[in-house]
Amino acid sequence: MKVVMYPSLREEKDEEIKLKELSDIEELDGKLSKQSEENKLMHSVLDNDKETIDEGKMIKEALNQGMGSFTPDLMFEQLVKNFSIAKNIYGPSLIRQLTNYDENYISRNAKIPEFQKELKKNIEDNVEKLKENKLIKKDGTISDKGIELASLILYTEELDHLIPKGILGEKVHKKDSIYGDKEDVKTYKKGDRYRDIAIKKTIKLSVRRGHKKINEKDLKSFEKQSKGQIFLIYGLDASGSMKGKKIETCKKAGIALAYKAIEEKDKVGLLVFGSDIKEQIEPTDDFKRILREITKAKASKETNLALTIKKAIELFPAKEVTKHLILLTDAMPTTGEEPEKETMDAVSQARVNGITISLIGIQLDKEGKDLAEKITSLGEGKLYMVRNLEDIDKIVLEDYYDVI
Fold it and tell me: Which domains does the chain possess?
């Protein structure tokens, strides 16, 4: 496993030094204690401590399945009463981690009394270990330490996946930006703003070509360079249909985006949405904060894109910077009196506020694709249709690279 630390680790270390010079001993003790706990978890993961990693994966899977707590008796009852329903609730990975048995083996033996006793004991023992290690509380709810460990697991898994492929290579801000300074001219193309037409260059070219009137091929427009910083918001669909593998791969894609964009000195925000906004972070360079909130996301209820876009408008700064919203969803809006109209009205408001919108659609049906095309056309972004979940992180980074 590659040892990769947070992008802001050096700044955090500098900040610690300042605190040592200015803070009282009592205040230092609390902060150092928390950092010590985080460092222990990080070292355990990086040192391939199997027990810690397995427990972190268990917490991660529970969150991905929409669970907020562990209830051994209920889990056991559902597994032996109706395994197919239990499999849908908990997912094969979490069932294997909790019971120490493969799903097929459980399905074949779930009605055997002797096996049921062992199954129940395994579930209780594994949940008890989580409590002993303070990854879940006494009532079974996931603790802050549990979320911290799960976030480290997601983080290391995603970087291990991307780094060998070179996807996190260095990028520089050389793409066009409507907020940049006028640098050079280029041939006018569909989509360029009329106000950016280089009038003098266009007239000179038309005269040189002997044209009595300016035609379309004579048009030149100013090419603009990005100012160097981009504000992004990653909109993660956490509706019920995203439960399991879908939301996990989308979480990892958000982690990859935050890691790379913050490394490039850009700022990243987060919106976790379903029928309402579940988590929100304004564009920031605090990678650990984004990592934590992405990890906590649980799938439930319906999809409300209009509300998400409106909230993004509020989170972006009012100043003129490059502002880009990336929406990731497997379904079109299902809430509101007129979901499609409300969504398109929100997209229009976003464009008025200088926000471009790209959409990554996961296995959308024809109706969903048609609306997604309208959203990205009006939002002046790109539409990506995903069939293979493993491609999502690469697509998210591709969209980011296109913006810069």
Answer: 1-166 (no CATH), 181-225 (no CATH), 230-403 (3.40.50.410)
